[in-house]
Amino acid sequence: MFQFKPEERLKSRRIIGALFSNGGGASFLGYPVRVVWLFFPDTFFPMPTSKVQVMVSAPKKNFKTATARNRIKRLVREAWRLHKHELYAQIPEGKPPVALLLMYIAKEEQTFAEVEAGVIKAIRKLAEGIGKEEEAAS
RNA sequence: AUUGCAGGCCGCUUUGUCGCCUUUAACCGCAUUUUGGUGCGGUGCGGGAGGAAAGUCCGGACAAUACAGAGCACCGCGCCACCUAACGGGUGGGGUUUCGUUUCGGCGGAGCACAGAGCGUGUCACAGAAAAUUACCGCCUCGCUUCGGUGAGGUAAGGGUGAAAACGUGCGGUAAGAGCGCACGGCGCCGCAUAGUAAUAUGGGGGGCGGAUAAACCUCGCGGAUUGAAAUGCCAUGUACACCUUGCGGAACUUCGGUUCCCGCCUGUUGCUCGCGGGUGCUGCAAGGGGGGUAGGCAGCGCAGAAUCCCGCAGUGAUGCGUGGAUCCAGAUAAAUGACAAAGCCCUUGGGAACAAGGGACAGAAUCCGGCUUACAGGCCUGCAAUUUUU
RNA sequence: UGGUUCAUAGCUCAACGGUGGAGCAACGGGCUGUUAACCCGAAGGCUACAGGUUCGAACCCUGUUGAACCAG
After folding, report:
1. Looking at this predicted complex, what is its ipTM?
2. Overall average pLDDT of the A101-125 stretch
3. Nearest nucleotide to A113 by CA–C1' distance?
């Protein structure tokens, strides 16, 4: 339940490029994390087997050393690992997989508790957002 | 004991819970099967960042491609000897600059891109007469003179300028002067002797007096093929025989397959010139351009080797040698090595104390080694020097 | 991984090895009933940092720091 497997990590360069381009995906804030997400397109091959693929990013502009960026990414990833099951439970079957980008935007390093709170908030908003997309599609 | 300097070493520890990457193959399940196995998943047993992993400043290993050769260009290095796989690194020695000290002989510390300015060219602001064969004020000789000077010539001692002024001091000498001559001293050049492997040092001889700058061009000596693990090899996947540009001559021999020579074009040889080599010369080939597709896997890749430590031997030392002893399984690929909790350790602040609060340096492997440079809380060890206390 | 370029006033840029300057901005004064424009004036720099070469360094050399870019 708390596992974090390789197929749950976002690796496709095309999808990552789409996430970073303007208007590529829906985005909102769960401070200190900014969330960008979209559904995988139908034509993508091979289609991932997990419900969500996620990547974590920390900008070099705010964190100069590699050690600091590693630390931030590990904190966010750990918070995601501990709470992702809440999101999985709310995604209905038959939906395309969700590509997710968690970008750390605070200027300084924060404690795990603060990051965890932000990620929990983001997961709740995201579940809401996916539900709305469902209504709009139907 | 404290302080300073130099060198070397370490660079948070333990437990629990939840995770990540990986070696191995004991066990389990599924698939496949050439019945040996193989692949995937799970469990188990192990391992999981550094002294700088960093900067990418040098040098190699390794790999691919290339290589008859010559000249010019280009790049790097530069006291001597040694060490090393190699180096722009290291060790030892010499010279030099500077600081301290001195009983003025030296001694000690720190630094040095430390070949050549006696081939040539360039530059040397301002000031100054003049910045490299120069003469403003001076000094001296001769001519003229209205006796104020003025013209021709000699000279570089004195003056002032400057970062730097054409060896320094004294004597002789002279019209005045000048290394013009002599004595002492300085400098670098040529060859000699002694010491040293050598750089170099010391001594005496000859001939001389030359501005600085080569981190200006340059000269001399030595070295340099190019490209770098996204190299490279293999497997899988997949597209486009589309498009554009250029080229498509001549002669001889012939067993009609071709061969040779000249010529043209393209191309390789780090750049250029020569030279040499490869391809091509007809209805589809060649060379180049541009465009499109693939974006997965395996090897390379951590294999015990230029490995590290100890001991012994050789050497002043770097280092080398050894049937000597011991140690050494990180291997990711949108990229693992983590999070939380508790206890301990250390530091700071407050406090009489118990204790409380806050903090734990610099920093993250990506083919691998040897160096250099830079960042770094705190601690340990060794040596030397100084001071204080005790015996 | 390999390579190239750059750093000068608040901003954009100059400056043979010889006193660091221009435009804009900001400041003070003038003009105007007021503002803008215009005119006058003054200020602002350890030339990214640390060494070295040179009589003298923004410039030459070495090292460091930061930034931008290129190739596959």
Report:
1. 0.78
2. 85
3. B340
Residue with tokens 């197929």: A7
Residue with tokens 């980008």: A101
Q: Is the CB of A16 under 7 A from strand B?
A: yes
How many Å apart are CA A138 and CA A133, to the nearest integer? 9
What average pLDDT score do residues A4-22 get? 71
Domains (range + CATH), chain A: 6-133 (3.30.230.10)
How many Å does it take to go from CA A97 to C1' B192? Answer: 96
Q: Which residue(s) pair with A100 in the sheet?
A: A37, A54
Distances from the Cα of A57 to the Cαs of A16, A33, A133, in angstroms?
Answer: 11, 10, 25
Here the tokens at position A24 are 């590529």
Nucleotides of strand B within 7 Å of the protein's CB atoms: 18-21, 49, 53, 295-296, 333-340, 363-365
H/E element, A72: helix A66-90
Collect all residues with Cβ–Cβ distance below 8 Å to A36 and sequence separation of at least 6.
Answer: A19, A20, A24, A25, A26, A27, A100, A101, A103
Predicted structure pTM score = 0.76
